[in-house]
Amino acid sequence: MSISYEYYKIFYYVGKYQSFSKAAKALNNSQPNITRTMNKLESELDCKLFIRSKKGVTLTSEGENLFQHVQAAHKQLQMGEAEISALKKQHTGHISIGFSIGITELLLHNRILPVLHDYHLLYPQTHIRIINNSTPSLVSDVYHGLIDIAVVTAFSNANLNLHEEILYSFQDILIAGPSFSHLRDKVLTLAQISQYPIINLWHGTETHEFYHNFFVLHGLPFEPKIETASTDQILSFVSNDMGIGFISPEYAGNALKEGSVFQINLAENIPVRNVSLIHDIKRPVNIAADILEDMICSTKVAEID
Question: Are residue 44 and residue 156 in the same domain, yes or no?
């Protein structure tokens, strides 16, 4: 089936405005031509896309399904046009970069913000858009071209089109607040700590899946009593004696020094995790994003805190 792109373009505007006349106005076209084209599209697809009435048109279920795909394609074309326009001007462009919610504010401040600062000094006209979401959501956004690059934790590269550049490695520790001081200096097993309220990121994040797999590997269920929206909140809840939690030693450092939390010695070895930068190698290079990616990767380190 080979259908003219122009048909889909007109279909997009009809679906957007729910009106043949408004679509005609937006496209600087005539309403009879718009109507005729949509009739041809329905004929070629052999299905009804619109329910027509005096007030305008509404999409059928088939029309709604098609509109979602056409809308996504339209957005991609708009993004492409915007990028080409930006690249015509020296040192301009658009970058969209995602950070997983497992990336702490401290990590951003210590490792990422200095790079963004240097990049901004070099290319002050570049528009930078920051997105926070779970690792699975960011992986999907990169794959579908909604964002250029993402910095994520515990990334599992099931899709070979996504390139992973490991920035650094770390190993979480288990911490608790003063009310759990009776656990200090003891070596506890996962089975033993399962008796206490565990605080972790919410279900659907890569971190939650990481610890679910870790517990299952040792024949135990992973059942957090409190699920938070960020790693920062894990530390806050733990320091307020609401449970115990796994966190990176880099982020827990100040709290450990101040004594608001302490480390619990765990018998089992927590697997090493990575913070990685990912992008889609099959998509055309966004020059602005490519420069920033190179700058971030040039500062990477491989370490276990």
Answer: no
